[in-house]
Amino acid sequence: MSKFKSGFVSIIGRTNVGKSTLINNLVGEKVAITADKRQTTRTAIKAIVNRKNSQIVFIDTPGIHKPKTKLGETMNETAWGTLPDVDILLFIIEATSEKIGKGDSLILEKIKEKNKKVILIINKIDLIEKEKLLKLIDIYRKEYNFEAIIPISALKNENTNKILDEIEKHIPEGPAYYDIEEYTDQTARQLMEETIREKALKLLDQEVPHGILVEVEKMNLRKTTKGEEIYDVEATIFVLKKSHKGIVIGKNGAMLKKIGMYARQDMERTLDTKINLKLWVKIKENWQDNQSILKRFKSE
To answer: In whole angstroms, how far apart are CA 173 and each of 10, 102, 148, 168, 286?
Structure first.
């Protein structure tokens, strides 16, 4: 009989390479927000995959990037901080790369320093021809002794099961660290904050989304007169500038209503509970350099 295995896996890569989309596919639940914007993930999110003979705990990290604020520095520190304590790394790159760029080269140097077991994931293979993929595999194979190189399309959920099989080979025997019903270490409050921020990222343009901070101030579970459970949620979207506040609210409150509607619908599916959501928008200048706020983005 196979012995039970368990282990921790960090997913690392540049911003916008598809880490969050991949982790949601692997888990089969939405645990990380996704948007076609850079630096979407701000914290190290744990996501749990329970298999017949193993429990794999993924750590989705912020994308490595050149920081312009204290928030950016903290996000990079959080990503690098996950490396020492995991059993294996998933290093994600884009198939559309023709060479090892500056960002990927920086990550490779860190990987070499730590001398960890690494699986190279080449994402977005649906966008290139096979010949280009083979060249890219050859370039990376010369750089590091990867345990495996797995080409995938996270968007189309292609080849992603191979990743779980490969990880299971390399993690040690051990107990399940989380209950089999759990798929993330995030609280309902954190999931709500991140969902609201995701909708803002998707609906707003240019520089506004990255200056957004969401705080759920009240979250109360009650029963309606019909005996149905419902969450009363009150949240504030903080922005950096007065002009941003107007954009988030929109004409006659239209944008804020849209953000709230999409966030509520998404969270009702996630929590399987009705939600009554109220949103406000306030200005909080320079919060990206405020140490007391940045504490929440630091890895433990």
So the answer is: 18, 37, 20, 10, 47
Domain 5-170 has CATH 3.40.50.300: yes
Q: Is the pTM of this model over 0.90?
A: no
Residue with tokens 């996704």: 34
* Cβ neighbours around 97 below 10 Å, total: 19
* CATH of the domain spanning 188-297: 3.30.300.20
Bridge-partner residues for 214, per DSSP? 237
Token digits for 39? Answer: 């630096």
Highest-confidence range of 20-29, 64-73, 117-126, by mean pLDDT?
A: 117-126
φ, ψ of residue 191 in degrees (nearest 5): -60, -40
Instruction: Give the phi and the psi of residue 233 in degrees, each rounded to 5.
Output: -120, 130
> How far apart are alpha carbons 186 and 80 in whole angstroms?
20
pLDDT of residue 92 exceeding 70 = yes
